[in-house]
Design a protein that fits this description.
The complex is a heterodimer of chains A (275) and B (152). Chain A has 275 residues and is α/β, with parallel strands linked by helices. Chain A contains 10 helices and 8 strands. The chains are: A alpha/beta (275), B mainly alpha (152). Chains A and B meet through loops of A and α2, α4 and α6 of B.
Chain lengths: 275, 152
Amino acid sequence: MTTAWLAEHLDDPGLAVVESDEDILLYDTGHIPGAVHVDWHTELNDPVTRDYVDAERFAALMSAKGIARDTTVVFYGDKANWWAAYALWVFSLFGHPDLRLLDGGRAKWEAEGRPMTTDAPDRPRTDYPVVERDDARIRAFRDDVLAHLGKPLIDVRSPDEYTGKLLHMANYPQEGALRGGHIPGAKNVPWARAANEDGTFKSRSELEALYQQELGLKPDDDVVVYCRIGERSSHTWFALTHLLGFEKVRNYDGSWTEWGNSVRVPIEREAEPST
Amino acid sequence: MTMAGSPLPARLVEIIEDFAASPPRDRLELLLEFSQSLPPLPTRYAEHPERLEPVPECQSPLFVAVEVDEDRRVHLFADAPAESPTTRGFAAIFHQALDGVPAEEVLAVPGDVAARLSLAEVVSPLRLRGATALLARIQRQVREQLVTAERA
C-alpha cells in the first residue's frame, strides 16, 4: 500500500486508517486525517497477564474505534512501521480479513508533505463480532520454540544483541534480560535488511535474494522469527508472509525478554559462522 | 510521599502531585504539554552536539548536558526529536524539576523517581527505564562536574 494510493482513498467508506506507534504521544501531535490510534501497550496488551487482549476486549476495542469486520484496515506508524506491523500481526491473530501496511509509514507520509491533523477522527461505532483469537497459526510460544530447535529461526535484532555483547557494554543497564545471546541455530538477519533507507520495504526480488538465496529458506518452510519483545520481528513476519508468500511463519512474541530470562533454556553466544 | 534524607526539589514534588491527581488519560496530555515546553538548546550546544551525552537506554535519540555554576546550582540542557514526544516529555520534566536546583539536591533525588510519576499504566516499561537512565546520567554528570570544580 503506497502513500499515494492512501492519499487518494482516504475518504473511501469501508477503509480505516490505524496509527500504531512506539511513542504513545506521537499520534496526538498530529496524524493522517481520519486515522484512529491503537496503542500496543494500553490497548492490545492485556493489562495484567503478559498476553494480548481476549476476543471480547478486541471486539469492544474495534467497535469503539469504528472498525467493522469487513473494514479494510491500513496500518502506519513510527520507527519504520515496527509497531504498525506488530498491530497488524495482533489483528491477524483475530483473523481480521483485510489488513494492509502503509509502505514507508508515518515518516514517508510526512516527508512527502501530505496532510496531518490533530482533529479527532469521526468514525461511528460499529458492532464488531466476538471472534476467538487463533494463536496457533502465526504465534509461537516458548515451548513451541524449544520443539522447533533445528528448524529455521530468524533473530532480527542487531548483531550486538545477537552475540550477547550488548548486555556487557560498560555503563549500560540490563535491558530486561538476565542472559545475552541468541536461541541456538538462529540466523541473525536484522529487520532493517528488509527495508530501504526511507523505511519502505525492499523489492520482492531483493527480499527473495535475502531470505531465499542468502538464507536458503523456502516458502513452505516452518519459520519462527523473534526479537526483544516481538515488534521488530513483526516487521520481518510481514515481509516473509505478505510480501514473499511464505506459508508458515510464526512470530515468537515472548522473544528475548522471555528466552533470556528463562531457566535452563539453551543459549548460544558466539557469532554464527560466516556463510 | 515517604522520603529518607533530603527532601525532593519543590518543583519535582509539584510535578509528581500533578500527575497523581490526574486521571490516566489526562496524564498523557500533561506529558504531551511537558514535551512541548522543552526549551531549545543554547547555541553552544546546538552548534556542538558532540558536547551532549547520548542516553542510549531511550529507544529514541536523547541527548543531555549538565553544567554546575559557581553557586553549585545545576543547569540542564537536553534535546530529543519532535517525533519522540514521550522522550521529550521526560526530558522536559527533569528540566523543569532540576534546572537551577543545588547540586546536592539533584544528587539526592532517588533513582526510582520516574516510577513515581503515575505513568506506569500508560507508558511502556522501557520508556520508564529510559527516564530512570536519564536521571542517572544527569546525576553522574553533576558528580563529575563537582569533582572537576574542586580540582580547579
